[in-house]
Amino acid sequence: MDKKLYIVGIGPGKPEGMTIEAKRILEESDVLAGYPVYLELLPQELRSRRDGTPKQEIRSGMTKEIERCRLALSAAAEGHKVSLVCSGDPGVYGMAGLALSLKQEFPEVEIRVIPGVTAALSGAALLGAPLIHDFAVISLSDRLTPWEKIEARLKHAAEADFVIVLYNPESKGRSGYLARACSLLLTVLEPERPAALVHKIGREGEAVWTGTLEEMQDQPADMFTTVFIGNSNTALLDGSMITDRGYREK
Amino acid sequence: MDKKLYIVGIGPGKPEGMTIEAKRILEESDVLAGYPVYLELLPQELRSRRDGTPKQEIRSGMTKEIERCRLALSAAAEGHKVSLVCSGDPGVYGMAGLALSLKQEFPEVEIRVIPGVTAALSGAALLGAPLIHDFAVISLSDRLTPWEKIEARLKHAAEADFVIVLYNPESKGRSGYLARACSLLLTVLEPERPAALVHKIGREGEAVWTGTLEEMQDQPADMFTTVFIGNSNTALLDGSMITDRGYREK
What we know:
2 copies of one chain form a homodimer. By secondary structure, chain A is of the alpha/beta class. Chain A has helices spanning about 20-30, 35-40, 65-75, 95-100, 120-125, 145-160, 175-185, 215; strands at about 5-10, 30-35, 55-60, 80-85, 110-115, 130, 135-140, 165, 195-200, 205-210, 225-230, 235, 240-245. At the A-B interface, helix 1, helix 4, helix 5, strand 6 and strand 7 of A face helix 1, helix 4, helix 5, strand 6 and strand 7 of B.
């Protein structure tokens, strides 16, 4: 018996950003499941069978996560080799947790998570080296988390002098959230603290903004923006955002 | 003029864990620099020129980071295509920050950071989905950071209910550090809090331990161990460590 569901991270978006393992598993899969935007990021050769016909795709929109996972598990239980495709890493705000928690309904299916480069890492690489030391990753989405809990995490992260990465800063239904987060952080951090935004990492329209925490309040952001706020050792240098780890000439 | 130094993350260790981009850049490089253990993780074909002869390698030990970066920058300035190889992601406790900060000595060299799957992500994928929600990454190494700062970060991370990932828990010269961190965390978290260790991710000897925070105090750890401590929504289920993101049936 070999019924397997792979939860596959494809990295930031461009095909070269996925791991060799992710590519091999997508090639070998005969059913692909995922949010349509992510499936469309895949190169055509991974979406086609060897004979050139398109692979079966299980597509469903945002907020249909439970349905999408069940359909993927159910296709695996029928004997298909199924990959559930996530952008970035499936274990960071991705589908890996939900799929594993629904597994008990499909005890015959084995689940394997294939990690990928999450936006914190791919965004950091574009900026220079902001995450070179201890950091905290926080989502500003209050769809599944109370805003008070998000605020408490922001405050602790600033007080602990973590480099801070924010995911999902804003969306159509959540405008003004980045400014709210900045103004909360400014109760702990100085206005000049280096900050950066990376939009659409590895995709068409990729763009970087760097400045200060105070200036960032007025910047536009959306679901495809990743936010970086430096720690007390972070500086902007020749257009790069670099956190000093503390190496000293001996 | 095209003088480039690539700082390349090769992921957890097995060749399939690197990105397609990382592999291409290593193939195209004629000089490889890095800590010898990392260079030896590379498949032989990436360490050889097209004619089969070995590529030039700049090897230097731990604590020789500044020297290694300068030699790599200097080889790039001479016109070689140079890759400085890091395990995991070069931007997370890696060489990207140091190389960028030394760049001013070699103004003609352009630096590009190629991200990789860091141990927090590859370890999480082996465990299930512990990082599915907000998390903090902390190194226990006090070689470059005062221990008091590490303690403050541990405490804030626990109070903020982050999932916590610890890098570099112990080393030959730093024994007992994991137990110290656990006992500090136990002043905030309950003894039954799910916890896990992953040893040698993607390498020979890969091993996983799961249990409670209290039990973890007595577990062995070293430089090749990555540590996971759940948040208040993390559970161990059928051998997997899963953090609930809060999806509910509607």
